[in-house]
Amino acid sequence: MPRLSESNLRIAHEIISRYPRAKSALIPLLHLSQEQDGYVADDAMKHLAELLDLTPAEVLGTCSFYEMFKREPVGDYRINICHGIACHLLGADDLIHHAEESLGVRQGTVTGDGISIEGVECIAACTEAPCLQVNYRYMNKVDNAGFDALVDGIRDGSVSVPKHGTLALTRQSISEDKAAGNSMVESNDPPAWWPEPAAAEGGN
Amino acid sequence: MPFEKVVTRRFDNLEAHKIDTYVATGGYASLRKALDTTPEAVHNEVKAASVLGRGGAGFPAGVKWGFCPPGVWPRYLVVNGDESEPGTYKDRQLLERDPHQVIEGCLLACYAVGLTQCFLYIRGEMAHAQERVAAALNEAYEAGYVGKNILGTDFSVDIVLHWGAGAYIVGEETALIESLEGNRGMPRLKPPFFPAAVGLYGQPTIVNNVETLANLPWIVEHGAEAYTAMGAENSKGTRVFAVSGHVNNPGVFEVEFGTTTFRDIIEGSDYAGGVRDGKKLKAFIPGGASAPWFFEEHLDLPLEKTAVDQAGSMLGSGAIVVMDQDTDMVKACHNLVRFFARESCGKCTPCREGTTWLERILSRIIAGHGRPSDLSLLTEVCENISPGIAWPPKQTTICPLGPSAVSPIASSIERFRNEFEDYITLSDRRVIPVGAA
Asked: Class of B233-324 per CATH?
């Protein structure tokens, strides 16, 4: 179902409404597509292009720049093993090697039951090295045994992480009566709380 | 010297991410206080506190705020939470453990500078931080701290949670704006695209780091004088450092800015507790992957901007990475260079081609296929990215990413040339421990 579902379409319109210019919603909407399908399909990009009044090529241009967007199915569980400098110093290369041996797949390929591994750049958990993320959920100080236990947990369902594509489980929602409203570029009005021009510019 | 913790003051409280706990511990009091005074007064307080930008460049936030051209509206706030510099691990903590403090900081900045819409850009990989911030924003909207007519005043601002999708370069402020506009995250040329003048949608835009903004509630609450009473001449207040690598107790520590030394934070029992397994220090990175390396003789330098700048490196993003005596410096260098090669956006030729070639040359050296001319070739490529290979670096590129790849090469070749030569010439290669002849 590569086009956005009806419920996701509602979310998409809500996201678009928070930006003065619709194209700003593109990256959040690509995440939404990926959440729905596990990857960003060509038809999904066409749909987003319609929604944002862009060409499909413009959508692809943005989509292809960012590491997190996958344009083909990648399996339900992506294990990203950090190989940034702090993790490198504490054995990330060995951990990646062990992961490849243990799963029997190379980095970037998927096992039959939908698990893949990849060495990734620093994921900002340097004091917990070596660390990894499963679908962007952290696991700290992982050794070989810890990795195997993780994979077992994924396989028997005891490790509960959302499937690939789902990022935050909590969404921001701004109700209409609470919203300040977008600051449109065309308005050129000073903010309501801003003092008169003479007083405003003096001290800045 | 005793000091009061500023941005990590609620880290011991595991409920601090909830609004009730935040308010019960003094949260949003600074917002109320600010709303009772003028925007100008809040701006002046922050300027007087001379809080240095915590993203890497260390530019005073209050001064940056003053660069918005008068009479041009609307103005935007873009919060840089795209923390990706290897070794850096502070903004994620601030967002996950005390999100309301960051939100309050955003509100104070918006009020002071007349910013009418705020975009809080969080790195895509940080799912938990996004959840915490989304929940905190929903609470804050509900309680009337964010949105329309905040606390019954005519101060109105939306804070929109925006998330990235995996690109280090987006931490550069003009690339961040490109990304927020829905484009590929490629930096813009300055001038004319100084964000304060021509930023988001071409409008005046303040881009501040998460930690910078997290300082503001404390400053407004206690005053600039109390803030500047802490720290050194050119580095006021406190600062958060993440110490990682080969240490006994890696962690994130808030210290008084400018008075604590590298030795204190790396070896002190209250901090990282020294190099692990009783080994000697071989080198350390003082401020993130982009910073030239420091060694034993730099340990007594204070964690202070001017001193570190003069010694030829930078505090950057507050990431200290420690390497022990057995570290393979060629591999460590390759690791850092590979990062920059992968993360180069491809806009400027010296960086796109240069970092790629640097990575390839280092790869072949490690694989045992290095050539005797490779060391001078590395230097030559570095020269083309950053003429003179000096500090602070000159650049042939729009942004500093390319020159950042030069730092680890210059540092490691100068200090550990013999390790590179061994890789190239010896079939039976060795790592030379620090201090050995």
From this structure: alpha beta
